[in-house]
Amino acid sequence: MSTTAIPAGTKWWSGGKSPFNLSYGKLMMWYFLMSDAFTFGAFLISYGTIRFSANYWADPNHVFSSFPGMGHANLPLAFVSVMTFILIMSSVTMVLAVHAGHHMQKKKVETYMLWTILGGILFLLCQAWEWTHLLTGEHSVLVQNAETGKYTIEQWAQTTIQNPWGPAVEHEQLASLGLSVPEGEHVYLPGPKAFGGYFYGITGFHGFHVFSGVVINIVMYIKTKLGHFEQRGHYEMIEKAGLYWHFVDLVWVFVFLCFYLL
Amino acid sequence: MSHAVSSSEISFAPQAGTSTKHIWKVFWILLGITAIELGLGLLMYGYFNEPSFARNLIKGVIIILSLAKAFYITASFMHLGEEIKNMIMTIVVPLMLFIWFIIAFLYEGGSWKEMRNTNAGSTKDQSKIEKVEKPAAKPGHEK
Predict the structure, then answer these.
(1) A43-80, pLDDT tens digit by residue?
(2) To the nearest 5 percent, what fractions of chain B are helix, strand and coil?
(3) ipTM over 0.85
(4) CA A67/CA A80 separation, integer angstroms
(5) Cβ of B94 and A61 within 8 Å?
(6) Does residue A34 surpass a pLDDT of 80?
């Protein structure tokens, strides 16, 4: 893919130039992203460890099956597809901004940065809806009192200390315990508690990255508008912001994989 | 040359392409892969709900597709593919740690499950016995 021929006999390590053929700032952005990759990696792998150690895990198609404005319609993977599409799209507008920067097209950089910022904000709004929905939605859960051993049905939301997505309970079993629920109401056992902490922790940390990315992109937009990069003679800051923004998209690929698909 | 060199540390600037065709091509590839992943996810939801070899196979395919997406994002959008080999290696080689990281820690998780279910190997797998003898409501393992 590299279109530039490397000058023959270039001694990269002989000093006087970057052995990576990269400016200090860009290289350090890469190394920062590497450390961030290991942070996210450690979170996701720890989630995997706990999941592998559990006999039962909540089914993502069951947990994430809602769509704004669709009530109780069962639409697994639908909303997260929209979120993924928004993030991919904003990644494309970002790379288009970088491309325009290479060609010193100030107006184009401004336009594409605005689209990228819009994509980031939309993604954050989607996440806000999803969190609100999970934190406020109530589900019937069959709970056994630890002291008396008596069973009751409680209304649980998905929080960091409660998980309502355990195995389903048959209505006959409820009847044998002397409990009854309206026809068609599903009752579940408590699910793996760790799910909430990992889900909110990791998607929250990712959302925080999206948020800081949006802030960085806004700063870059203003600096472009003020002509700072035009004066400097290059748009390398847009490239650095772009690296960060693409990384956020990259992390989402794996968050999407680990929480929604597997 | 249209591309401005930003620093004296840089020996030569990558040639900036004049068209955005390549970017859109990668966009369609990413979108296509995501669509296939969703299709496979729904396939698992609809037809392979119980743990089975087929389900694990689909999961494996989804993981490989995700890695392909990661490759396209870093190589094209982050322009790592256009950097010199020194640069590519300083990023890719440390990431190899993830191979050990993932294998070791998932194995650890599996081992914990086994130890808990068998009382550290002294009994038969309790989780399987439970299913046969006591199908009645019993709260699952809380963690």
Answers:
(1) 999 999 999 999 999 888 888 888 888 777 788 888 99
(2) 65, 0, 35
(3) yes
(4) 9
(5) no
(6) yes
How many C-beta neighbours within 10 Å does residue A15 have? Answer: 7
Residue A39 sits at φ, ψ, to 5 deg, of -65, -50
- Separation between Cα atoms, residue A241 and residue A235, nearest integer Å: 10
Averaged pLDDT for residues A76-97: 93
CA pair distance A95, A246, nearest whole angstrom: 8
Q: Which pLDDT band holds residue B11 (cuts at 50, 70, 90)?
A: confident
Residue count of chain B: 143
Element of type H or E holding B69: helix B53-72
The distance of Cα A36 from the centroid of its chain, to the nearest Å, equals: 14
Contact B45 A61 (CB under 8 A): yes
* Structure token pair of residue A178: 């002397």
Q: Which residues of A touch B5 (CB under 8 A)?
A: 234
Tell me the residue type at A35: S
